Amino acid sequence: MSLSPMLEFMVSRLEGLSTNTLRLEVQNQSSNISPQSIIRVTLPQNVLLSIPTLAWHFNCVTSGQAGAGQTRLPNGIDHIINRVSVSIGGQDVASGANFYNVLSRCREVLEGSRLDAGLEHPEIITTGANNSYVSGSATDVSGNEVYSSANNEAQFCVRRWNGFLDSCEPKVLSTDLVSDIVVTIFLEQASLAVVASDGVAAATFVANTSAQVPSYTVNNMYFTVKAYSMANGVLDNLYAEQMSQGNLELTFKQYFSFRDTTASTMRYSVASQSINKVIVAHHENASPAVADQHPILAAGYNPITSNLADRVLNLGKAKYIVPYTNFSVPTSSGVPLFEWQMNGAKYPMYRATPEDLLLIARQGNGAKADLFNKDMGLHQYKTNNFVSCMDLTLDAPSSRFLQGVDSRSTSLSAYYNMFNVTANKTLTLFVECGSSLFIAPGKQCAVVQ
What we know:
This protein is mostly beta strands. 39% of the residues are buried. Strand 21 (425-440) and strand 22 form a beta hairpin. The longest helix is centred in the first third of the chain and has 12 residues, at 100-111. The strands form 6 sheets. Strands 1, 3, 7, 8 and 11 form a 5-stranded antiparallel beta sheet that branches. Strands 12, 14, 19, 21 and 22 form a 5-stranded antiparallel beta sheet that branches. It has a 4-stranded antiparallel beta sheet with strand order 2-9-5-6, with no helix packed on it. The protein has one domain: Adenovirus Type 2 Hexon, domain 4. The protein has 7 helices and 22 strands. The chain is globular and about 65 Å long.
């Protein structure tokens, strides 16, 4: 049992409703955080919180061997995240999928989301001081990418999430109904998040022959979240009446991750009340050696030159990506073919080509099918963005609708098959499921996956 989806509309018509933004401090130290660290923040109690508005603010700088080349932040600052989990009263509600940064990149390809250039560092900065869209001419981007942390500056922000924080319904939660909500962020290892290069010319920017080991440091961390307050007890009475009739239900999307290296078949299994989507990323290099930890020139874009007119953020100009999230079509004899299989049922009902997979991914985006990146052509899709997606349900307007495949009472045998592939490919597979959080009186919680 859940609150009506019309609640948000009703609240917008109420008198005495006000909003504010709260600043939250992390539980551990807030500066000099190294790769593979753990960051925790506790959401405030006894307040109406808009969960999806949680934002993580920080300053991030790169480093490398002294006197050897340059290091750069990734195309998308959430590359530095490996996993995000949410717990309530010490109980895991959403443990979070590993390879969080890969999932973010997959959703960018499938949903066409554009990262915010003012907050999320959407492109790898090339060369020339005027080409930095973060600090402009004040930053010498011919060396390591370093930003001032003086006066508690925090140039970057992660404000879009995968899983519970992004999709919980209802989105506004009265936190006095539950125990402490703790969000935990696990940082990624540096070799998969940031890149190094020999120089700033076209040839040296895509090379790391000096074997420079790139790294990063996070400083000035804090979180913000939007809160609501009401001048009357309408919402409190609504919660009380709802919980007197049964538990309060919050639904959300949860992701499970799997990884394998194969040239034929990848097997996985998930027990869930609603399997909605299966997403597969085909890595070009999921474990880059030190010499390979350099920027990759995106297909269809120009390499940097000595001309300072070369800019990022526009098609046809300079664009580079991190090797870890460079996805490409597998090497094959003839045309590579793909299919999903669940308990003998095939999805689709034929072996799909890469072109078929692009159409299926577009159709799997439902009402958002027209929101894809218009700058990504077929060549760019096959070369740098090869992500496949099989939708197993109708396009639900929110996570309230649990209408996917129920695999709790069956022994699920699921496979992702590739045909005509001649070399092993590292695959990262994500299963999107609909989960439910039941809240009972006395701050008792239970999760149904």
